[in-house]
Amino acid sequence: MQLMIFICALLMHFFAEFLAQGDLKEYKKKSYWKEKYQEDFRKDDHKMALGIHSLMWSICVLLPAFMYIWFLLDADTNQKACATAILYSILPASTIVHGWIDDRECNKNKISFWVEQNLYFLEVIAMHVASLGLIQLFLSLS
What is the spatial distance between Cα 66 and Cα 98, in angstroms, rounded to a whole number? Predict the structure, then answer.
């Protein structure tokens, strides 16, 4: 079951990274705002787009684990709520890490696309191990 959840999380990464970005792909680039708008107050607008994309990506990648908890996990409602809280605690860290990696590739040109995608793959693995590992630990203690 955990392998299936991981594969679904990886597929959600592909969906969020390559299909669902839409205009955010341009908006998260600092160069877009410099070329399109000259106003000084727009100098940080790319950060909002990065944040929105990173949050969407993190939610998409955690969605299979949420689905597992609420539809397949054999546990009572309180245990499911606690397991969901574990996922919610991972969400901000994942959002920050994804935004940091994305900024290094699309704005700072510090890493290549290849490195970026490998870092995302490692992030999906880390999220999977952390979330499902903590949930299994919690359920074994309760």
Answer: 19
Assign residue 111 a region (left: φ > 0; alpha: ψ between -120 and 50; beta: otherwise). beta
Q: How many CB atoms lie within 10 A of CB 93?
A: 14
Digitized pLDDT (tens) for each residue of the chain, 142 residues in all: 789 999 999 999 999 999 998 888 889 988 888 888 877 777 788 899 999 999 999 999 999 998 988 888 777 888 888 888 888 999 999 999 999 999 999 999 999 999 999 999 999 999 988 888 888 887 787 7
| Angstrom distance (rounded) from CA 119 to CA 136 | 25
Contacts of 108 (CB under 8 A, 6+ apart): none
Distances in Å between the alpha carbon of 46 and those of 24, 54, 64, 138?
A: 9, 12, 29, 39
Please, how many CA atoms are within 13 Å of residue 22, restricted to the half-sphere of its CB?
6
What's the full length of the chain, in residues?
Answer: 142
Token pair in block for residue 16? 């969020």
